[in-house]
Amino acid sequence: TSVKQPYRTSYHFQPPKNWMNDPNGPMLYKGIYHLFYQYNPKAAVWGNIVWAHSTSTDLVNWTPHVPAIFPSQESDINGCWSGSATILPGYKPAILYTGINPQNQQVQNLAVPKNLSDPYLIEWVKSPHNPLMAPTAMNQIDASSFRDPTTAWVGPDGRWRVIIGNKRDRRGMAILYRSKDFVRWTKAQHPLHSAKNTGMWECPDFFPVSAQVPLGLDTSINGPNVKHVLKVSFTNHDHYTIGTYNSTTDRYVPDKGSVDSDSGLRYDYGKFYASKTFFDSKTNRRILWGWIDESSSKDDNIRKGWSGIQAIPRTIWLDKSGKQLVQWPILEIEKLRNNQVVLPNKLIKGGTLLEVSGLTAAQADVEVLFEVKGLEKAEVFDPTWTNPQMLCSQKGASVKGSLGPFGLLVMASKGLEEYTAVFFRIFKGQNKYVVLMCSDQSRSSLNNSNDKTTYGAFLDVDPLHEKLSLRTLIDHSIVESFGGGGKSCITARVYPVLAVEDGTHLHVFNNGTQSVGVLTLSAWSMKKAKIN
Ligand code: DQQ
């Protein structure tokens, strides 16, 4: 019996079947990229978690391997949960991960490659000293909230540091441990950082970024012109702050205005969770992997036999403002671009819907550059509008405005019974213009068992002096959008009934009263990648 699979991706990473969640231990070793991930070998729902493993030489095409880490000792017999890789001196990779012990306590374990001359690092052996870090009566760590070790870094005293996600009551924390030999770890007196009312911090990530050049830095780098980023996952989102790390006191202090709360900065304002970066020493980039969950029902996931994909890896760096990060799909993905379709420079009048044809619209990469005119006609921004997602839900694609909504209708059916709208609206604020970016899924499918929540973000672009760009990667059931060159990202999952395969269309639209210029629009059909 063959089930139709209109929602499987063609160039977003996923295993052939079953459940996948967090990306784990990404690294580059001897010219080969490794991706491990949380995987259930038995079903399309979470459970029986092992570290599945794939490798690649280009981050686009992937070869599957046998699971690298699976329950085999007391310290991980009930599950091998998330963790990270560190390359130790002598060019030796090491993985720290969370194991679930027979008492269902969360403990931290070490695994190392069995054979360093195998470039694929297929077999991993666990330390006989596991667990290396465990909750005890002495350290008062909550055994159900102690997980997801980061990549370790070296301080000025030569000792290794690692942080582990934790909470105490409602306070989220990044517990710090130090070690001389990577085997014996001692808990520091104080956490690296914590914040009240955030709940458990899952999958922390802590890394330096250059304040001078848009390049990545290896994890132990610190000094002048280096800022640090702390990312933590809670309430379904990956939140980050930018700040300063003092490696002598081992404290991280977020910059003023950089807040650890639900209203702070996010990597992505749609679906994107439990992400992790690694430093690519071959190209001096820092690369971000993130898990994109389904928006379909559990029953549908079981029926289709799989659940979870990974976002296209993103290069990540500090914006020149120093106030936020910028993300962009890795350049390698552009080698899948095929049959470019170009829309010549054009003024899009209010009320226009313009089809972009000649491409496989269900498997595409679209880049568009808008020029906004008549800014004095922008609607006035109400300063009580502090929640962009709410604003996008109230002012969806069908709600007419002055400057906007304008953008792309993707995954659209022929008769527009279904579409996903990715668009902008521009408002006149107190002393600057406010750009709102939305991904409206409310009309994405005739199947109402899907979660069709609309997502939104503010975009730090000044339309008076800058052009407004939008890039959208479309891949059957994912719409991954980058506004303003990657200053705000919104990822959505959609499951159309009519707009599948060749029944899928792409349009540019302007539902505002003011005209908008399209300076350039390029759309490519995307070739299929080898994703396992
Ligand atoms: N997923 C893992 C945990 C982590 C959570 C378990 C985040 O280690 O905290 O599969 O999605």
Helix coverage percent: under 10%
Secondary-structure class: mainly beta
**Low-pLDDT sequence parts:** none
Number of strands: 39
Fraction in beta strands: over 45%
Give the number of helices: 2
InterPro entries: ConA-like_dom_sf, Fructan_Metab_Enzymes, Glyco_hydro_32, Glyco_hydro_32_AS, Glyco_hydro_32_C, Glyco_hydro_32_N, Glyco_hydro_beta-prop_sf
Domain Glycosyl hydrolase family 32 C-terminal: 332-525
Pfam families: Glyco_hydro_32C, Glyco_hydro_32N
Family: Belongs to the glycosyl hydrolase 32 family.
Outline of this structure?
Belongs to the glycosyl hydrolase 32 family. By secondary structure, the chain is an all-beta fold.
Could you please describe the fold and organization of this structure?
By secondary structure, the protein is mostly beta strands. It has two domains: 18-329, Tachylectin-2, Chain A, CATH 2.115.10; 337-526, Jelly Rolls (Sandwich). The chain is globular and about 70 Å long. 50% of the residues are buried. The structure holds 2,5-dideoxy-2,5-imino-D-mannitol. 2,5-dideoxy-2,5-imino-D-mannitol (DQQ) binds next to strand 1, strand 5 and strand 15. Residues 12-329 form the Glycosyl hydrolase family 32 N-terminal domain. Residues 332-525 form the Glycosyl hydrolase family 32 C-terminal domain.
